[in-house]
Design a protein that fits this description.
Length: 371
């Protein structure tokens, strides 16, 4: 079976990294290629390193309608059995192109949808109308959480066209052998300029307003001078975060690591993961922190909400306010010296194992391809 994944871009965001991970675990008979409409970033390089064919359409913007005929030609020439789209722009253009090219099986994963927000942007009447028009061109929409599935149904997407398949995590990549973890931690702390003996809070994700990383910058100002904050990711909020840190006098304790493809190693360099976003549709970063053996303080994580109490005992919910995070992190720090190495994997990490998630998605592909 030949499968084409169409994604808006391939920067190191959660949806893009999840696509990369899935392609490593889908059944061998499903031969996948990837097409980025724009911005073939670090994930494109990682995919190519794995031997995956990556196409770049060179689209100039949301209204570059001339990209559609090029996309139709590429889909038709590839003789794909199934097209799978990811993220809003790719959903609109990808579903349309797949139908025009004669592909009958068209799947889309909805990674980031709330009632009034999609991918961090407000949902206008026009955005919603285009979304629903494109949805009717597909076969199935995959929701990554019950929350996303509920929103899709409230928008009028028939339940029969929604498939719940959560994101997954490859926990073995985050569980380093003791000697390797020690060496990685030492090397990356030195690379990031973290002083010996510092206590390090980390946040992972795109630097966009919805991630609310300014909460962590403001909390940092309330913590002792041996506490540092490392933010891993790139985005338009970088300059604003730097300015806020300067205003609060903590710029020297803030490390903006940029877009990275070595997140498991970077997590080993941290002492705690903090996730102040209130608008998550899954919460993959929280699970990554748990898989790395870190205590986690978070404000929203549907992935954990859907599990029984006790599935992640080292994770605690915190209101997305600077004072609340400062208090939670201050309370956590005295315990850090008593933790010998990483914490054990909680049941939540095993529940979202990528092998099981990829198996379910592969089964959906087979079912749709059979018609």
């Amino acid at each position: 079976m030949r499968v084409l994944h169409i994604v808006t871009g391939l920067a190191a965001g959660g949806a893009e990294r999840q696509l990369h991970l899935l392609l490593r675990h889908l059944p061998a008979h499903q031969q996948c290629e990837v097409l980025a409409l724009t911005n073939p970033g670090t994930v494109a390089a990682a995919l190519r390193a794995d031997g995956v064919t990556v196409h770049h359409l060179g689209m100039r913007g949301n209204r570059d309608l001339g990209a559609l005929p090029r996309l139709v030609r590429l889909v038709r020439a590839g003789r794909y059995d199934l097209v799978h789209t990811h993220l809003y722009r790719a959903q609109l253009y990808g579903r349309t192109a797949a139908r025009l090219a004669g592909v009958r099986a068209v799947v889309s994963t909805e990674h980031s949808l709330h009632a009034g927000v999609i991918e961090g942007r407000p949902v206008t009447r026009g955005v919603k109308g285009l979304y629903l028009a494109a949805e009717r061109l597909g076969s199935t929409t995959v929701a990554v959480s019950r929350q996303v599935a509920q929103t899709l149904r409230s928008w009028g997407v028939p339940a029969a066209r929604i498939e719940l398949i959560p994101n997954g995590i490859e926990s073995s990549r985050y569980r380093l052998a003791p000697a390797e973890r020690t060496a990685t931690r030492r090397r990356l702390r030195a690379e990031l300029g973290l002083p010996h003996g510092s206590w390090v809070i980390g946040g992972v994700g795109r630097l966009v307003p919805g991630k609310r990383f300014e909460v962590l910058v403001e909390a940092l100002a309330e913590l002792d001078p041996a506490t540092w904050l490392v933010l891993v990711g790139a985005g338009p909020e970088r300059a604003a975060l730097e300015r806020r840190a300067e205003e609060l006098g903590v710029r020297g304790r803030l490390v903006l690591a940029g877009e990275r493809d070595d997140v498991p190693g970077l997590l080993a360099a941290l002492d705690v993961l903090a996730a102040p976003s209130t608008a998550e549709t899954f919460g993959l970063g929280v699970l990554e922190g748990l898989a790395a053996g870190l205590p986690v303080r978070y404000s929203a994580c549907p992935a954990l909400d859907e599990l029984p109490p006790g599935a992640a005992p080292q994770a605690r919910r915190v209101p997305s306010e600077a004072a609340a995070y400062a208090a939670a992190l201050r309370d956590l720090r005295p315990l850090s010296g008593h933790i010998a190495g990483p914490l054990p994997h909680p049941p939540a990490v095993g529940h979202y194992d990528i092998a099981r998630v990829a198996r379910d998605l592969g089964a959906l592909y087979d079912r749709l391809a059979r018609g």
